[in-house]
Amino acid sequence: MAESDADLHGLMLMDEPGFEHVMQCVFGIQDHECRTYVELLDVPGSTVSELAEDLDRDRSNVNRSLATLMEKRLVERERRLLDSGGYVYQYTAVPLPEAKERMHEALEEWSERVHGRIDGFGTGSNEAF
Fold first, then answer.
1. 3-120 is classed in which CATH architecture?
2. pTM of the entire predicted model
3. Nearest Cα to Cα of residue 93 among 70, 71, 67
4. What is the distance between the alpha carbons of residues 105 and 17, in angstroms, rounded to a whole number?
5. How far apart are CA 120 and CA 107, in angstroms?
6. 3-class secondary structure, 1
7. How many Cβ atoms sit within 10 Å of the Cβ of residue 111?
8. How far apart are alpha carbons 65 and 94 in whole angstroms?
9. In whole angstroms, what is the distance from residue 13 CA to residue 114 CA?
10. What does the H/E/C string look like for 10-44?
């Protein structure tokens, strides 16, 4: 069983899964990525350095988490010019209602695929049970 399948199975067995469990399962993200998203909800406009300190994580690990979250369209990045010259990136989580809507959309897409697979069982196109 693939890791995401195991996550889904575990989620289905929970009576009342929490936000972070659902988010991890639906988006296929890790715990540390989910914690990064939640931190950005609390402290929007954070830099990598600020997040690394707040989350007690290495900057490189925070960068990887942010890259994944941006790929999943859960975090946005904005470049801020510094008075001393140069720039720094600030990160902000997409608003919770938007993230929840994306969770609903992802689950609906998955459900449609599974329904299609179920409908195809025994029809010749999906002979393997």
1. Orthogonal Bundle (1.10)
2. 0.79
3. 70
4. 18
5. 20
6. coil
7. 10
8. 15
9. 18
10. HHHHCCCCCHHHHHHHHHCCCHHHHHHHHHHHHCC
